[in-house]
UniProtKB/TrEMBL annotation:
Pfam families: TPR_19 (PF14559). This is Tetratricopeptide repeat protein. InterPro entries: TPR-like_helical_dom_sf. It comes from the Bacteria.
Amino acid sequence: MENTLLDNLLAFYREDPQDPFNIYALALEYLKSDPNESRQLFEQLLKDFPDYLPTYYHAANFYATLEKIEEAERIYEAGIALAEKLGQQKPKQELINAYRNFLDELED
């Protein structure tokens, strides 16, 4: 029997549940099939691994697609602040651009 990507990601998570990348990869994979599970994983990342910068772009976009405006704004702003704190200019600019696009769509 062939393992699916989700099966592999779950195995990696079981091996090391404290690695934020494993949780992040699962959250992204669950976006395709189980948004509630994805939401729980994003919330876990934001709570337990607040310095894991990759979370912010996808988590904010996730909440934006659910039209959870305040939550999306909070996450974008927190991600931008974290990227600034960490000196990560490219992720910071990507978050700023995504946030601007999000705000522009709200105005339409």
